[in-house]
Amino acid sequence: MDHLSRRNLLAAAPAAAGMGLLTPAALAAPAIVKGARPDLNDPAARARMRARVIGSCARETVFIFYRLHIYGYSGDGNLIPFFTMNHLNVSEWTPKPGNQYESRTYEAGVYCRFNTDEPLDEWVNPITGEKRKVWQFYGGPFSVAIGPDGIVTKGADLNPVVLPMEELGDMVIVPTSSSAAFPNAATPDAYPHLSAGKTIFWESHATYGARAQDAFNEKLTNAPAFCTFQNMATWHPWLGMGGRAETTSGRTWGRAYGAKISSLDEIPAAARKSLESHTPDIFKWKEWTGFRNDMGDYLKTVPKG
Q: Would you indicate the residue range of the signal peptide (predicted)?
């Protein structure tokens, strides 16, 4: 995420069908795991299930690896392939009082030639034709707290809205959506070649899918899950999209797919090599001493004007 602040954001789920957790049909379905299903009218059971699928309801570290394909949209025509990011999410989960499960999350991503594991140090913007020095991604740590009916984030401008969970076939689907608009630190006056306007707009829609027998399993703290998200965001300054017709009409659009992995050894070998060579600090997340703000840190490296 490009811009981070210290605001606290809360999203509450609809108070229907198990407080928006499952549809009535799912609540009435036969038990899938051995023994009775948890009572999802119980706030504690709802919170455990939500945390079990998204992360963990125990004290443990959860890794998610994503392939994130990023495109440019100029405001007209089709999407233009930009690059692929090998993205690693590291979240340290801790149970908290009041049926809350909190993660401390660290992120890093390496920009690669589109649909490959070949890291980019320089990249030619296909819209402008300009060769740009690539700014690799780091973010965090920020906190995410999952409760019975919502998600609270600290350190992020994205405002997650919990959508109703559904049981489809033998899967439980956990969707969320986020939308944000905030002042752009790269103002047009200070950074005319880099700025995409006075305001940053950011949309992010994530979905987690787990087998129902795992999602409902009260003996399981961390359900294996398939994870996806889609982002649509104002141009990042490092792309050099300031002062153009596409500056305000266009955005980047990204589609990520990945999964929880049981250890860092499960990262595909070529992707891990790219992360080790270009974002090595993600493997030393316990040593991070400060907050890493992707856009803010980038702007410290470039002159104004």
A: 1-28
